Amino acid sequence: MALLITEECINCDVCEPQCPNDAITMGEEYYIIDPEKCTECVGHHDTPQCMQVCPVDCIEPDPQWKEDADQLMEKYKRLTA
Ligand code: SF4
Ligand code: SF4
User: Where residue 55 sits, what CATH number does that domain have?
Assistant: First the structure.
């Protein structure tokens, strides 16, 4: 499942450099995650790095992007091919 940043984001920019897939960018009002690039950090880390560092806990699973561990690993392989 890709992750999603909610409107509670305070634009602190702490998460963006932590993402191994460059999936996080500044959106129109707050930071956003590209679901095509977010693997929940599968392939790089044991836990989602952005969630670890976000000071306001505004990053959560995106219900529009349901993916299991195998699909996330496939996405990781596509991104690194
Ligand atoms: Fe990037 Fe990992 Fe956060 Fe997804 S979970 S946006 S890959 S840091
Ligand atoms: Fe927004 Fe959290 Fe990222 Fe800071 S760490 S920019 S509050 S999502």
Answer: 3.30.70.20
